[in-house]
């Protein structure tokens, strides 16, 4: 079964999700295949916070960056917007700016 790529709409609406919420304007989102990577800091030395992986047309999973740069699956599998809401409500420290 071929992987489903993240679509431009997924990227744009995820960027908008963070743009309109207080405290999350430091974040940016980029698309990489089936992933939406949430990061901050300079583009040349970005801090990766989390990523959403598209697993079916409607379902996404959440992976959180560890302090060692590895990715840990958070055990969520929901529509993209529900994963984003859970990320900001249940795991807000993951999105904290890193100086």
- Element order, helices and strands? HEEEEEH
The CA-CA distance between the termini, in Å, is 41 Å
* Count of strand segments: 5
For the largest sheet, list the strands in their spatial order: 1-2-3-4-5
Give the domain tally.
Answer: 1
Number of discrete helical segments? 2
Describe what this molecule looks like in 3D:
This protein is of the alpha+beta class. The protein has one domain (8-95). 23% of the residues lie in helices and 33% in strands. The chain has 2 helices and 5 strands, in the order H-E-E-E-E-E-H. The protein has a 5-stranded antiparallel β-sheet. A hairpin with a 5-residue loop joins strand 4 (60-65) and strand 5 (71-78). It is globular, with a radius of gyration of 13 Å. It starts with 7 loop residues before the first helix and ends in a 9-residue tail after the last helix. The relative contact order is 0.17.
Compact description:
The chain is an alpha+beta fold and 99 residues long.
What are the key terms here?
99 residues, five-stranded antiparallel beta sheet, alpha+beta, 5 strands
């Amino acid at each position: 079964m071929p992987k489903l790529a993240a679509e431009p709409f997924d990227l744009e609406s995820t960027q908008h999700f963070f743009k309109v919420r207080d405290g999350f304007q430091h974040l940016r989102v980029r698309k990489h295949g089936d992933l939406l990577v949430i990061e901050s800091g300079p583009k040349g030395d970005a801090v990766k916070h989390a990523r959403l992986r598209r697993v079916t047309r409607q379902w996404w999973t959440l992976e959180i960056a560890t302090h060692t740069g590895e990715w840990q699956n958070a055990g969520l599998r929901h529509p993209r917007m529900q994963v984003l809401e859970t990320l900001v409500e249940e795991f807000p420290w993951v999105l904290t700016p890193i100086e």
